[in-house]
Task: structure prediction
Amino acid sequence: MCTTDQQIEQQVTEIGRKARQASKEMAKASTRQKNQALITLANLIHEQRTQLKTANNADLARAKSAGNDAAFIDRLTLSDRAIDTMMDGLKQIASLSDPIGEIGEMRTQPSGISVGKMRVPLGVIGIIYESRPNVTIDAAALCIKAGNATVLRGGSEAIESNGMLARLTQQALSEAGLPADAVQVIPTTDRKAVSAMITMPQYIDVIVPRGGKSLIERVSKEARVPVIKHLDGICHVYIDDDADISKAIRIADNAKTQRYGTCNTMETLLIAQSIADQVLPELVKTYRSKQVELRVCEKTRQRVTALGLEGSDIKNASAEDWDTEYLAPILAIRTVASLQEAMDHIDQHGSKHTDAIVTENYSKALQFLREVDSASVMVNASTRFADGFEFGLGAEIGISNDKIHARGPVGLEGLTTYKWIVLGSGQIRQ
Result:
């Protein structure tokens, strides 16, 4: 067990060195080998389901005794459904086209040379995450298919689950004739390991932090390695005055209550004032039945009072509520005069993650898609679809709100880059 800063740095450096060496082998791996590793891993998870749940139960018991909240426990739990989803994700990634080695955009120049791009792996990807053991599989699978090696640093709360998943992944790699070191989990939960990971560009090509705001802020501030990240998930749904009422209620319900502890959960609901009286009664009834606390603007408060919907679960919103990612059964609601006011609110208070409009008006839908500057923008769909699995990426390694390299759910293509290639027949530059 590491006890000193120097020992931790040495341990992480050795893991990084092994990952760099493994990445060279992974870059040459055949599609057949990579797919075999993924299918074998899905089978191993199925065979070891009972043992995996036992390991997860040990993590859950420790988390509950530490007093962690319900959202935290939800993220940590490997239910049968969560395990099935991991297996489905592995099979879906195996079925995807292998991007590595693809050559595109070939064009012949006046000199006679042909110029194009070849898709190649990023190399070694470091992933730092908290409480979600399924990330171990999602991240490892995507990195394997994209021909990368990965160094995983999970949180202490999921140490048993992550350790077992890593061992199964290494077994699957070995059985496919690939280096087991292509997927490694840092065994120490000491936070100094994070500092070592994010300051070793000689071994790690990119860092993906997945966790709370404080973790991502720290990584972004201290990293000497490029970072793919999003900081907040303040997602909006705007119910337009041309919305289908029943459709709007279903979407607003699902976007908030399907799961509370995810970054694509709606945190603010915007309602066109001309339609407020038509949607508020059913929405309040729905949210009240699920014990969702509502924090409303003054206009919404007036309509709630006029409609006889008052209750202790409806409170006045503060200025901070518009900028808060609750990750809990709390929802901010604002009534707006127009689509433009809704988009202005999103521009001022959103986190450029995911925002949706509910409308039957094609022109308004197109305007929303064009003008809302978020990584995922939706029409007549729940924000909960902003997810690599739901987007058909097989899984995701994270969400990026940035505009350089990767944006939105980061799947296979986001874990690759390209090199320019030139094909000639003896040309020399004059």
Q: What stands out?
A: The chain has 14 helices and 16 strands.
